[in-house]
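Troubleshooting: if your tokenizer reports a length mismatch, compare against these two reference records.
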Amino acid sequence: MKIAVAAAGISSFALLYAPQPVLPQLAAQYHLDPGGASLAISVATGALAISVLPIAALSEIVGRRPIILTSVIAAAVLGLLLPLAPSYGILLVLRALQGIAIAGFPGVAAAYLVERLGRTGVAAAVGAMIAGNSVGGMLGRLAAGFSVDRLGYHGALTVVAVLGSIFSLVTVFSLPPSAIRPRTRMNVLAGIGAAVRKPILLAQYTVALLAMGSFVAVYNAAGFRLTGSPLNLSPAIASLVFLAYAIGSVSSGTVGRTVARFGRLRSAVGALLVTAVGALLTLPDSLVLVVAGLVVLTGGFFAAHAVANGWTAAEAPEGARGQASGAYTLAYYLGSSVGGTAGSVIFAHAGWTWLTVTVVAWLLVAAAVVTLTARRFSPR
């Protein structure tokens, strides 16, 4: 089960963010500014956000395993078709379809793990799953970044699609069935209401929205910052910054121990503040500080995400785990889509400093919301 879920995470997130390292090449090919190029990311994550809640509700009827398997297979097939797109418009259509396909995994994975492992182990289990997700994001970005110089962005996307297909097959052959039987349509509809009424769950959705928006906004602009003046790195060297995802794997994989020692609230707020500090470190035009800041930001973000996702799964009503997981994922990828595009526009028109100020403000708002809500409605 652990191998299957990790492989699904690697495949899904490698495919989802494969275009991010080649955004400067897409901008040059199709005469786009950073905001227009970032649509290659935002269209997919926006489609994912819109479709994730209906897919999560569907998983209550047909089961988690069929949804996850359909997700990884369809996403891999669309990834193989993506380099064949004859225009930027068709590429965006394929990315939207791929976002819908990918929605099946993150939308139900946390609920699947709770049903297999129980509530007590959910923090560590979700942390391990997110560690696999971050490995996928890192591998996909590195593969694309190192391939683009020699193969162009078409070849770079093909390399990532092949990697995603391999890991999707691992999931197909190793994922065990869910421990919970599918529910009726009435249970599903009631669960959607339960997933959006509990204040502590709404706070976690807010963290997902603002933290993910901040993270993607920074990384969407990072390629332009690193390859532009005054840093002037080559695309291959600039893509090495995605090795920072290794820190995300460590922080999310070990966050269960942090939660056990300090509690969910302190762990979540601490992780959000670390993320903000990482963003501030990138302000000077120093390659060392920019890279260090991205490493700190990445570690803090993945820890915050693991805490919030696990908190959602643990606090979700028993009959609404899939819907709560879907609502969290909707907020997460809505943040990626809207925040990522907004950040790219801010960077294009106002520069890196104002992007950083915006990101830090979002993170502080997320920390304030989760603190106030937890102290009032879940004081532990």
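Reference record two:
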Amino acid sequence: MKNNYLVIMAGGVGTRFWPFSRTTFPKQFHDVLGTGRTLIQQTADRFEGVCPKENIYVVTGGEYKDLTLEQLPFLSENQVLCEPGRRNTAPCIGYACYKIQKKDPHANIVVAPADHIILKEEEFKRRINVAIGFAQDNDALVTLGIEPTHPNTGYGYIQFNDADGDVKKVKAFTEKPNLEFAKMFLESGDYTWNAGIFVWSAASITLAFAKYLPEMAEAFNAAQKDFYTDNEVASLDSAYSRCRSISIDNAIMEKADNVFVVKSDIGWSDLGTWRSVYENSELDNESNSIDGNVLVYDSKRCVVKTPKDKLVVVSGLEGYIVSEFGNVLMICKLEDEQRVKQFVADAKEVGEEFI
């Protein structure tokens, strides 16, 4: 276990989950489902027994460093990697993996977003350990694929060769499909949802960077000598100035020929939208998701998430989101949740303090 490392990606703002997720306090630092643990805390918790706590790294923005250390107090400052700017997931993952490689060239690395829900945690650990074992013994880039339960158009899909065994060769990645294709994928039986959880050795991922992102590999190789020193920030700034904004999927996973998937039934959700919060919440007798000090009358299929120090009365609503956090109250139809990004853009015009 000493060679196993976890990289938690925690730099996002979670715009689709506004106003609860804010620039100053993104959703990964919230207890979204009322479990008593925030999303980033749950992410770290589920790797107990998979890797030591001293091998957990969090990649985030400098503005969230104190929040990260407050919520994960076992971390040293060296374990919180502050990006100079947002450049999508490839530079974020590159920074973490090159830093870990300097400490431990034999590292096995798991990369996981900070804002996912996983209900079947023991099964998750089993599938992660299968992936780690394979990545440790092979030059392979492994991802966890979620067995689809319905034709979801909000997730990417992974097609695999249906050979025997837990680890299957990936044929192709597909971006979010329309409903017709999503139904075809589900019926075919050789597709999984793309969870964005990756497992590889430090050697395999840095080789992949050198092959598919040579300019980024060159930048991180140059900076690597200064990692864990007083010069790290300056060298990292220089490296990031040479990194284009691109996802790890587009840059490497969709191009590499050594990509494998471990099919997983782990009770997964990326908790990316208000609807996903609704679908993962405990519901009352009228199918409402309630979190706060709320009185509900003649209302069905609503999501209500409000501060506990306010009494909120909801009457006569069906299929609505009612959410308050800080200085913003939002009330909109659940079916209009895709408009939340537009609400945020318009709120920014009113004042930065509202986003």
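Descriptive notes for reference record two:
- Residues 32 and 38 are 7 Å apart (CA to CA).
- The longest helix spans residues 121-137.
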